[in-house]
Amino acid sequence: MVGILAALLLINSSFLMPDDAHSSYPSISYEVARAHEVKPHRRTIPVDGVRPGFNQLHLTLIVSPTGDVTKADASGSDADLKFWPSLQGEVGQWRFEPFEKNGIPVAVEVEEYIDLVPPERLPKRHVTAPAIRPDSKVIITLERTGCFGSCPSYTVAVSTTGIVFDGRSFVVAEGKHADTADADEVRKLAKRIVETDFYSMDDSYTALVTDNPTNVLAVSIDEHRKQVVDYVGAWEGMPAVITELEERVDTLARTQRWIEGDDGLVQALKAEKFDFQTFAAQTMLKAAAAHGRTATVQQFLQAGVPLKPIPRPKLGKEEPGNSFQPVGLLTSASHHPAALQELINAGASRSDQSDKDLALVGAAQSGNVEAARALIAYGANPNADLKKLTITQEGGGMTMQGSGSGSVLIYAAESGNPAMVREVLQYHPKLETHDREGKTAMFSAGNYRSSDQDGARVECVRLLAEAGANVNARDNDGNTPLHETFLTDVEEELLKLGANVNARNNDGETPIFTTVDNDGIPLFIEHGADLNIRNKKGETVMEAAQSKGPLRQEALRKAMQSASPQKIPAPLKTRNSSRHRSRGHISFRAPLSSLARPCSTKVGFSETGVGTLEAPAFTHERATQRCSLKFEL
């Protein structure tokens, strides 16, 4: 009895109709959208009533061909959504440069977000700041620490006597570097700092989170010093002017030249008599190329940085990363065709096949066809055996190296750029080459990146299938591409191409078990997903959904109720564990199609213990009754 009731209580008392069809508007990521802003939009907004901590609204905007926001919807927690009505007017005034498709302005759907922060915590008492005289000695220091990721870590001191930059990690120019400063501009910034009542600010605005960078802003005027610690300070009511001052220090010191290799780096290095024949110089050249700073790459080459690899200097003690094989010049520039072409023109790695092939992997992964073509013309092999290469990967603030696996085609498919896949396919690569996890290019085509264009991954899948790639390929865990992708349009394309909706992996699970795409569940059911299949734990997909939370359960119920009755598997016969007329344990699986039409409220069992089930009426238009059953045993 308990087993039956548990199964049936999964049926919600409220019936949800299928969602409206997905918007036909091209989808634009927030990174792309922000490059189209007419003027910067506020995304960190102080709001009365917001509690300290993380508070965010995710926005879905419809932007017209003229760049106007014609519709704005928000999602988030109930606590955050209550603030949405007061913000709609501001978001509705956002303007974008028109988005184009094939050179024609079109309406698009933009994904965005705004952070809600508490009102600013203004000083409770005033502290008199020192006066700034024409000859005042001023030192303004900004320290930014690392994070769980690749946040630049450095300290810059701007004073009336000059600028000193000390780069620690994730910067182009590590170590100490110096430049001149305009003393009047330094005093002008100090005056602005004093005007903001900086000396009266709290000493620290520290949020109770981890893995974020700490920013420490300090000013000393004739040895009268004040500093403010900003650790996600906006979440704790830090006045926005602190962030403004931090940015103004970076601007005055022009730190981007040392951080990302912006124009002016080489000139500053020359002024400090830097040696361009060193390992450090070659490392800076690679870093500038990796950031796509073409002008700086040109200037490093003109300054005489050697193209032949320079050995890493031996240090007194071994430090993490010192044993890594340095990344080649071409590989460093592989995501940026202009910088890459500068290095090719200079003859970089002309006889280094490994660097050419690794650079092609990088170009393929980034989906940069121009870079890939330049590398292939330079001698890179689109069918290179990656197992013979050492591949460097960075993520989460860590650098890892190891032997490669897979193929250039796998990386091309991962990019989600059909033109990149098409480019590599013309060299007739082996379609079923797999990586260390057993995944082929068909798997990587179903991955996701925020920069993906609508329909691009579907086209990648189609191109691979047309070339003969197996849509039912298996990885080391027995999964197929349909098990792995969570993109509804890719799932639909795979099914059209013959993907087996009931393929079972090593855990006995079919794609409807493993998908994290609730929108794809109706698709699986319509294509014949067998809901009676049990995994190796003995669970059906509905039973397995209990451990995945109410959203998955609701998605399954909704999909089953809205599916064509013939798409739902026939019910299994239910057997009583005892032939006696008593309450015994009953194992039961209820097909929901039988609950979508009028029926009675009694279950009867024959002497052999085989019974049938009928339950209260459910219709596709309305379903408000909770299932209940009476049993006669």
TrEMBL record:
Repeat (ANK) residue spans along the chain: 437-476
Bias kind Basic residues: ranges: 576-585
Segments for region (Disordered): 561-585
Matches recorded under SMART domains: ANK
UniProt domain DUF6438: residue ranges: 140-252
Record has Transcription regulation as a keyword: no
Keywords: ANK repeat, Repeat
Keyword Transferase: no
Protein name per UniProt: Ankyrin repeat-containing protein
